[in-house]
Design brief:
The complex is a heterodimer. By secondary structure, chain A is α+β, with helices and mostly antiparallel strands. By secondary structure, chain B is an all-alpha fold. Chain B contains two helices and no strands. The chains are: A alpha+beta, B mainly alpha. Chains A and B meet through helix 2 of A and helix 1 and helix 2 of B.
Chain lengths: 512, 74
């Protein structure tokens, strides 16, 4: 036995020790990596099922509370703003209450019940925002929420074009000419007044700067100074003549009308002087801090784990906004009520925040005739090839031959696109070039994206389909298939009934 | 041994969670207290937040006690 035992040399012993240490480090490293990847990302689990259930119920309650509290908080803040004014407190309070009530009425009338909500990941929020909404803690790292931002008059002005800002500065300089006339800014507008009398309101309607003057619109109806008659709205009861300051000419008319208001109030004018106004664009966080913007959290969106990576990519790069809106029970069809479990008298007169998810066919049916024509043209082109088939799923239509995917027809917003199984680099310097979307998981097999925004692009897409067919040795169809495509427009109820549109209820609109 | 270290980790997690919940509770607590000092009725929203967070902390504390018990029995 002893003959076979050869003692190791010191060098060999050192080498063995080093190998063992390295191996141990590798194992430890892998263990740590596994822990970081799998263990820490797991949701918190408590030691008994009953505790876990209680925790989940309380978290659910907290979510509902957050949603309701934040929606109510928006209204409370708007009312609170008026209490700061010492001089015209009574007027402002009454006016502000009316304005809040009016806004709903106005929005309903203008059918602005559909608004764009965005998905915001908690990890993209600033620390202050996270603190404000209580999204502090590891369990919120992967969470995403539907949010809606609302901007004050000042915030909208700061984001406006240079021309809008210039006209605002000019109209303010004009106002400053009149003695004893002041301007007071609230969240939604700027009030021009002298004593207790309101002369005008400066406001933003969308991106347009407007002025509502204390004049009778009927007096100027047949003149070049005519404005929009807003006397039927409570908000404009004192200032019924609305002028949109969309050009320098309109600005000059507004100045003239302002002088008419001054004449009515026996106010004298002084020398005009140019002032400086700080209207620089500010980042969103700063606007929030200054209370010039408000963020409303509507509800929780799917966590990143459960969400398609490719959709997340698309949303991140293209700033996709999710279509969301308010749907009243009275506007829902019977089918919607049944499938959304909203049948019952307890749901009468309620409204809900909903998210609309339009499928490929829904978008096609609601698209313009031009888009439909382009789709039909491509579908007929596909029918020219033997064994090339078009098969639809909810969000796209796949062009394939056997098991091979040759392309995908999809919508990006309202644009019909085709993604082909070609290498974008091969066509980079040609007129057939498309977008390289190979980095997205969704387009892994079809990395060349072409947006079908014109007949020429449709022609290019047909050429590329032909090249694909040659590559894959697909022959022409001796009897080409020409489809009879039913692309008739459908309303929301019909789309929903035919499973072409998905509606998700995010939460209930708090009742006043 | 691994069960023991796992329990210790869970205890640490639980303690951290309690700290986080207590800091969130503080906001509503301050708001409620402030309202009381001003002789006003605290808002329902703050009262609800306070109630829910307190309950979450109680649940977490029960969990912590359970974990300590399990650790002691090992």
């Amino acid at each position: 036995m002893l003959l076979f035992f050869t003692p190791f040399t010191p060098g060999q012993v050192t080498l063995i020790t080093v190998i063992v240490v390295v191996f141990a480090l590798l194992v430890a490293g892998n263990g740590l990596l596994a822990y970081l990847l799998f263990y820490r990302k797991k949701k918190r689990k408590l030691c008994t099922a009953s505790l876990q259930q209680r925790r989940e119920e309380l978290l659910e309650e907290l979510n509902n509370l957050r949603f309701t509290a934040i929606s109510q908080g928006v209204e409370e803040d708007e009312i609170d703003e008026t209490l700061d004014d010492a001089d015209d407190e009574a007027d402002e309070d009454a006016e502000q209450d009316d304005l809040d009530a009016d806004e709903t009425e106005e929005e309903a009338e203008e059918d602005v019940s559909v608004f764009n909500a965005e998905i915001l990941a908690v990890k993209d929020m600033s620390d202050e925002l996270r603190q404000k909404f209580g999204f502090v803690g590891e369990e919120y790292e992967r969470k995403r929420y539907y949010v809606r931002a609302s901007y004050s008059f000042e915030a909208k002005l700061r984001f406006a074009d240079y021309e809008v800002k210039r006209r605002y500065a000019e109209i303010c300089d004009e106002i400053a000419r009149y003695k004893s006339v002041s301007q007071k800014r609230s969240f939604r507008q700027e009030r021009v007044y002298s004593g207790r009398k309101t002369w005008a309101l400066l406001l933003m309607r969308g991106k347009t700067l407007c002025i509502a003057l204390a004049l009778n619109p009927k007096d100027y109806q047949n003149t070049k100074y005519r404005g929009i008659d807003k006397s039927d709205k409570k908000r404009f009861a004192n200032t019924p003549m609305l002028i949109k300051l969309t050009s320098d000419r309109r600005l000059s008319y507004a100045k003239y009308l302002l002088s008419a208001v001054a004449q009515n109030n026996a106010a004298s004018a002084q020398q005009a002087e140019s002032r400086r106004y700080d209207l620089a664009k500010l980042p969103f966080d700063e606007l929030l801090a200054q209370k010039q913007a408000k963020l409303t959290v509507l509800g929780e969106a799917e966590e990143l784990d459960d969400f398609d990576d490719d959709f997340a990519d698309v949303a991140a790069t293209e700033g996709t906004s999710v279509r969301a809106g308010i749907l009243r029970i009275s506007d829902m069809t019977d089918e919607m009520l049944k499938r959304l479990n909203l049948i019952g008298h307890e749901f009468d007169n309620k409204s809900y925040y909903v998210r609309y998810n339009y499928g490929f066919e829904a978008k096609l049916r609601t698209a313009s005739d031009t888009v439909k024509q382009r789709y039909v043209s491509l579908a007929d082109e596909i029918g020219l090839y033997k064994k090339m088939t078009l098969n639809g799923s909810f969000r796209q239509q796949r062009i394939y031959c056997g098991r091979k995917t040759l392309g995908v027809l999809l919508f990006k917003g309202k644009t019909l696109c085709i993604a082909l199984a070609l290498n974008p680099k091969d066509y980079q310097n040609t007129k057939y070039r498309g977008e390289d979307v190979s980095d997205k998981k969704r387009f892994a097999k079809t990395p060349m994206l072409i947006r079908l925004t014109s007949e020429r692009k449709v022609g290019y897409a047909k050429y590329l389909l032909n090249r694909l067919a040659e590559e894959k040795l697909i022959v022409m169809n001796p009897s080409p298939r020409k489809g009879n495509y039913d692309l008739q427009a459908m309303d929301m109820g019909e789309l929903f009934a035919n499973n072409l549109l998905k509606i998700t209820v995010i939460g209930e609109v708090p009742q006043k | 041994m691994s069960k023991k270290s796992e329990l210790k980790k869970q205890i640490e997690d639980s303690e951290r969670e309690i700290e986080a919940l207590e800091s969130k509770l503080m906001r509503s607590q301050i708001s409620v207290l402030g309202a009381i000092l001003r002789n006003e009725e605290p808002s329902d929203v703050d009262k609800e937040y306070f109630r829910v967070y307190s309950k979450l902390i109680d649940v977490e504390r029960e969990n912590l006690q359970e974990l300590y018990k399990q650790l002691k029995n090992m």
